[in-house]
Amino acid sequence: MRTLLLLVLLFWGSSLYAQSFTPPMFPASGKSLSAFVPPNWFVKDSAQGDLNGDKIPDVALVVELKDTIQELRPDSSTNLGSPRILLILFKDQTTGTYQVVQQHNTFLLRYGEGGMAPEPYGKISIKNRVLEVSFEFVRSTASYKFRYQQNAFMLIGATNSGVSGGQFEKWDINFSTRKALHEWGDASGDKTQSEWKTVPVTKLRSLKEMQMPFQWEVWPNVYI
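Structure (tokenized):
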């Protein structure tokens, strides 16, 4: 009973100091990228490339708070780290200004959410009008591909691979074609088995709907 009470008090104490993160107010547009970096924030990563098909280089920014806080995350966990925000900016061909078309406050994993290696952030990149966000862990990796269509950034692909208990497993999912390649096998061997599967999803999900990685169960026990 005493041990149970102690655990309850510890959980209550950690929850007490956790706080829902309130993001700063970003301008709707700006002449330079510095306009989108509030005081006490910095640019952790950036990528440049055409996202909307107008042949003008757009920009994706990852901005991070310099302070460390106990943050309450969408999955109800508490993380001691620095909030990160993903900003996607379209460049106006006429004025040369950047306009915010997407702001996501929770999707990017924070320092402290990487397990044995606390930093899970990989990188962002833009290629062939697709924005890719990747994460890296000690024994696994994950990436998400978003394309601007239907006036939103839609998840068109995701890859999740890792090693657990000496076994390798990888899912490479194309939500546009509804096809997925599943690979698995002994991590120490050269041979793996593979199987193509039909994705049981008929409607694409938007970046806005993806609150955090690994929250969407596409197949039983398969999360992306």
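Residues 29-223 form one domain. The first strand starts at residue 19 and ends at 20.
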